[in-house]
Amino acid sequence: MKDLLPIKRNWYRNPNLCTFQKNVKYYIAFCITFLLLNLNLSAQTDSHLLQGVIVNSVNDPISGATLKTSNGITTVSDIKGNFRIELPSSNSSITITHVSYDTKVINVKGEKFLQIVLESNENTLDEVVVVGYGTQKKSNVTGAISSVNVKELENKPVINVVEALQGTTPGLTIQQSTSQPGSRPAINVRGINTLNNNDPMVIIDGIIGDVQNVNMSDIENISILKDASSAAIYGSRAANGVILITTKRGNKDSSTIRYNFNLASQTPTFLPNIVEPWVYAEMRNEALFNSGRPVQFSAGQIMDFKQNYPNTNWMKEIYKEKSPQSAHDLSILGGNNKTTYLISGAYTQQESMMQGPDYGLDRANFRSNVETEVSDRFKINLLASYARNTIKDHAYWTEWIIEQATRMPSIYPIVNPDGSYNYPSGSNSNSLARLEKGGLRSTANDDLSGIVNAEFKILDGLTLKGMLGSQLYYNRLKENRSAIPGSGDSENRSTNSFQKIQNITSNLLLNYAKSWENHTLSALGGFSYEGGTDNRFETFRIKDSDDFDIMGGLQTTNTGNQEWQSEWSIYSFLMRVNYDFANKYMFEFNIRDDISSKFRKGNRSAWFPSMSAGWRISEEKFYAEGLKNILPSLKLRSSWGLVGNNRIADYQYQATVNVVQGYNFGDTMFPVSSFDAVNPDLRWETTSMFNIGADIGLLNNSLNLTAEYYVNDTYDILIAIPVPSLYGAGAPIQNAGKVQNKGWEFSARYLFNTGNVNHTVSANISDSRNEVIDIKGTEWISGFDVNTIVREGYPIHSYYAYRANGFFQNDEEVANGPHLSGVTPKPGDIRYIDKNGDGIIKEDDDRFILGNRFPRILYGLNYAANWKGLDFSMFWQGVGQRNVWMRGESVEAFHNNNEGPVFDFHLDRWTPLNPNATYPRLTIGAESANNATKSSFWIDNAAYLRLKNIQLGYTLPTIWSNKISLKSLRIYSSVQNAFTITQMKGGWDPEASDGSGRIYPVNRTFSMGLNVNF
Q1: CB count, 10 Å around CB of 527?
Q2: What angle do CA 716, 199, 605 make, to 5 degrees?
Q3: Residue ranges of the chain whose pLDDT lies below 50
Q4: Burial class, 919, CB count within 10 angstroms (exposed 0-12 / middle 13-18 / buried 19+)
Q5: Cα separation of the two ends of the chain
Q6: What 3-state DSSP class applies to 729?
Q7: Of 771, 958, 836, which Cα lies nearest the Cα of 194?
Q8: Could you read off the pLDDT of 730-757 as tens digits, one per residue?
Q9: Alpha carbons 779 and 726: distance in angstroms, whole number
């Protein structure tokens, strides 16, 4: 067996790994040399130390003011307004900015101490916030809107924007259960509102888009609209929140070329820990003995396992030791006083962590934004984007690969002495054989969009805006799955599919704005149309050979075709009115009428109104001056409104015919058709949203706090209430449910400095809990591995199972304790609570509601600091409450009569000498019926704290970057998903989906990169 080890190592060596490691070594050497050289050069400059104090017009100190030198060095004034900064020379300029004061530029001419006076500017509280169909000043916003600090997301070694958003915003839930190339993290805004689709609406530059296809470096702004006041302007699809993404535009009278590069190495965050082969053999014998079967391994075999090979960790062998990931993006932006432009391109490559040829993701992005002022009254904006995603993967489902690897004991080698794959008796598969020889699944997605925006100034304060957007989406899949002799995979199967989606978005809006004395009024009204088509086709063939090049031919058996077509449209009328009196009292009213093709005539139209109000208490005359010095900004706000959800398939109100291959009668085959029951009276699902919030600024607004509380009531939920099986057809969808979702949010951001070190600390925490209020007195249970229930008074899809109550310790306890119906337990088996006290544990009487998979108490903490060109940041993210129900081979020893798995936590199993164990006695097959039943024993605490990102960078001083014709150059190193603190057992990631653990792991990435501006 020892002779097989070098063969195995060479067999699975990654051919790209040596080149990747060599490149990394050269890159590290270059970075270190470059860093030391420039630190040395920067130390030789003729610097000038300037100290001083920053005050306002009444000589009060200003803390949190940012000072920036011409060579990019920054500092922040302390709580007493004092600052200390090193200038590149005694004749230099510094720029001072603060959220509450006018920006000021000072020319230093040899002074060593300065008192700098900043003038108050109310508008500086008014950071611009992107809202539906426009922008607003932050101080005037009366709804619940979170603006993401995009700069804090840059340079994170992630494949998509969604992953970078995790933990950054209160109320935004992102679950990354897998890092498989092409996978999509789950997104929710403010929890679960409905039994239907809970995905938020994502709008990119005015049209619904795919956030995965947006390059991080192209994003200017991300706003999360969370309440009815902010989201009702989008009406029928805003019930789950709205994510607005605005991409960057060009610069007037300047041009810049930006290049960003990131090179990363991926490894799994968690993998189960299996026991040594000899330990496995002893535990296998123990399980067989406990189950009344002969033992499998002799003492000599166990000793041989202890001293010799094989010792194969199948869970590790299906993954590479390291997998490269790289990203390049280049953007050119500039313009003149009339026209601005941005052109960008990006290329991302993520190699799969799984063994096999050429598996992974290739993504190419292109974007162009051009805006020109045709005249003083008319301007036009042209936007175009294209993204292509190519994903190559093994032809067998990932779940199968991981399932078989998990079940395979470490006593079996992967290959035989002759180099052929090993298929042990008792197993019909070899995961490595499937990965290496099982075929290829290739998916190619093309996403093309174009937008034309035009704006005409009719009169002062009166503007007409129009937008026309078009999207074209192609998806092509080709899968060739090869039969693997000896594995049980006997089919050569070829599948081809094609999907084409075309969407059109247009709107025409009239904007009015006027200010007089203490009054400010703005209004928006207009029309919107959206529509699209979806065409899909799929064909498959099962063949005798693995010649997959031809899908046609005369084959009439083991073949099939499917085709789907649908179209939809929404016509909308919308209006918004904002009124502000004396910059103290703010009011907003929105209304939208949507007319959707998803409902029959008479039910297609629905109105979605909202209203909100805000009060800036800090602007009142009674607000004491002394209080204003401590708490300069205080605003209360509240909102209420209605938003909708039409996330159901097309034509649900119409009867459809399903035609399937039927039966033979003689030489003739007759098709069979069936009709699904329908409800022609379907109408809109509606959510009533109430929100109250406060925005607080402390310490000259260097510390900003936001708090929110909300209640969402969703009614007329579109659901199919289960019907008796005797009905003979599927249940029709109807408006029959009501769910309430309550929650709160809190966020804080603080800027300060200590000496020459500038600090930024931000934190957020939020929670939401849903409850089923009404489903017409019914309830339904779903799931195979894991049972969930929808029941009035409890959260949606709560876990539903028996409640474990320790282990039976002796025969007396077994005789007196309750038993599962039809099962006789033994000492060491799990004991269950007898809910109704009849002595028999039965599904109908004794199951409990045992938690929920949806995360609660979400939090994030970000810290950043910079000093003389060095920058450091770390971001923590976590979940305070979550349950995960793990089943099957993910946690059960010898699951389902298989030979494996056996993990390290199985070592602490019950025996007469270990009565306080954490795992029941080892059993196999039918003897496991008691312990393997669905119960709270298998539900884990999945709360966790994760160091999501840690990063260190250095920016070359401007004076030196200019000498090599660069505006700036930054080098950095970063780790994503650095480490995780959790109580999850079994070596599974706490973000994993519930079930049997058959999922590609979350990755940990070590990366280096650079940012260059020309």
Answers
A1: 13
A2: 40
A3: 1-45, 122-124
A4: buried
A5: 59
A6: coil
A7: 771
A8: 677 888 889 999 999 999 999 888 877 8
A9: 18
Dihedrals phi, psi of 27, to nearest 5 degrees: -65, -40
Burial of 786 (0-12, 13-18, 19+ CB in 10 A): buried
CA-wise closest residue to 672 among 663, 683, 685: 663
Please name the amino acid found at residue 43: A
Closest CA to 954 of 44, 41, 25, 15: 41
Distance CA 109, CA 89 (A): 9
CA 227 – CA 639 distance, rounded (Å): 8
Asked if 404 contacts 356 with a C-beta cutoff of 8 angstroms, the reply is no
Alpha carbon distance 309, 411 (integer Å): 8
CATH architecture of the domain formed by 48-124: Sandwich (2.60)
Residue with tokens 């009124």: 579
**564 phi/psi in degrees, rounded to 5:** -130, 145
* 358 exposure class (CB count in 10 Å sphere: 0-12, 13-18, 19+): exposed
Contact status, residue 159 vs residue 166, Cβ threshold 8 Å: no
Homologous superfamily, domain 126-248: TonB-dependent receptor, plug domain (2.170.130.10)
Q: pLDDT value at position 133? A: 87
Residue with token string 């966790």 = 944
In order of 247, 972, 1012, the CA distances from 953 in angstroms are 25, 4, 13
Q: CA 961, CA 1014: separation in Å to the nearest integer?
A: 10
Helices (H) and strands (E) counted in the chain, each on its own, are 14, 50
- Rounded to 5 degrees, what angle do the CA atoms 621, 627, 630 make? 135
- The total of other beta-carbon atoms located within 10 Å of residue 212's CB is 20
Cα dist from 12 to 131, 357, 649, 927, whole Å: 52, 11, 45, 39
Q: What is the pLDDT of residue 587?
A: 96
The identity of residue 666, as a single letter, is: G
CB atoms within 10 A of CB 989: 26
Cα 385 from Cα 344, distance rounded (Å) = 9
Cis omega (within 30 of 0) for bond into 795: no
Strand bridging mode 848-852 / 101-109 = unpaired
Structure token pair of residue 923: 């059993």
Q: ω into residue 671 within 30 of 0, thus cis?
A: no
- In this structure, the number of other CB atoms found within 10 A of the CB of residue 496 comes to 17
Burial 96-105 (b: 16+ CB within 10 A, else e): bbbbbbeebe
Q: Return the amino acid letter for 591.
A: I
Residue linked to tokens 């299996």: 274
Which of 808, 696, 679 shows the shortest CA–CA distance to 747? 696
User: Which two three-digit tokens encode residue 157?
Assistant: 């070694």
Contact 943, 982 (CB under 8 A): yes
How far apart (Å, rounded) are the C-alpha atoms in residues 528 and 81? 51
Name beta bridge partners: 1. none
Give phi and psi for 728, each to the nearest 5.
85, 5
User: Are 710 and 742 a contacting pair, CB within 8 Å?
Assistant: yes
Identity of the amino acid at 321: E
| Ranges of each domain in the chain | 48-124, 126-248, 277-310+803-846+888-933
Beta strand pairing call for 207-208 and 134-137? unpaired
Sign of CA dihedral 809, 814, 817, 821: positive
Can you say how many angstroms the Cα of residue 612 is from the centroid of all Cα atoms in its chain?
30
Amino acid, res. 510: L
Give the integer Cα–Cα distance in Å for 78 and 62: 8
DSSP of 251-313: -TT--EEEEEEEEEEEEES----BPPHHHHHHHHHHHHHHTT---S--HHHHHHHHHS-----
What does the pLDDT look like over 756-783, one tens digit per residue? 788 899 999 999 999 999 988 888 888 7
Rounded to 5°, the CA angle 939-945-950 comes to 145
| Residues 346, 425 contacting (CB under 8 angstroms) | no
- The H or E element that residue 329 is part of is strand 323-335
